[in-house]
Amino acid sequence: MPDGADAVYVVGEYHFDDIGPEDIVLDIGANVGAFCIRAARRSRRVLAVEPVLAGALQENVRENGVSVTVVSGALGGGGDERITWGGRTLTVATRTLGEFAGMIGGCDFLKCDCEGAEWSIRPADLDGVRRIEMELHVPPIGGPVNRRLLDYIGEHYDFTIDRTPGYAALGVMGVLHAARRSGD
């Protein structure tokens, strides 16, 4: 396992018992696959996005015998961005949440742990997303906080924020658990 990959085994912070076989699942910031591999045992369509450990993720998916589409890249507004994680710095292509959803035909369930890039999500890209499990970051990791995104979630979802994630990480505000309100 690459350095820093051990934290991904703490998936208890994400709730995913309601993923169904027909759900389209996006795992943004998949690391080596602890979440997406479990999701793929529940759903037939899973897309995992990882900027730094995509090779290890692909190998782990293969070793676990699950069907996950792996994309090397990162959440953002488009264009290239320098990312530093686990002692490595590289330049990766970013895409919007809508672009990633378009690669797999939509998104019913979003898991997002992308070290502050969650604030680049455009509220309209959440249209149709039934469930969100997302780590929220504050400076120095993320920011600025996207108030429009938070307002959208507040208007359309019932949610809680667990203030203590499963491990101590710099700049983590908490883990958002959100379910779209019925009829919304």
Describe the structure.
It is a single chain. The protein has 184 residues and is an alpha/beta fold. It has a single domain (20-180), classed as Rossmann fold, CATH 3.40.50. 20% of the residues lie in helices and 32% in strands. It is built from 4 helices and 10 strands, in the order E-H-E-H-E-E-E-E-H-E-E-H-E-E. The strands form 2 sheets. A 7-stranded mixed beta sheet has the order 3-2-1-7-8-10-9, sandwiched between helices. The chain has a 3-stranded mixed beta sheet with strand order 4-6-5. The termini are far apart. The model has no long low-confidence stretch (mean pLDDT 89).
Brief overview, please?
The protein has 184 residues and is α/β, with parallel strands linked by helices. The protein is built from 4 helices and 10 strands. The chain has helices at residues 34-40, 54-64, 97-104, 147-156; strands at 24-28, 45-50, 69-72, 74-75, 79-85, 88-95, 109-112, 131-137, 157-162, 172-180.
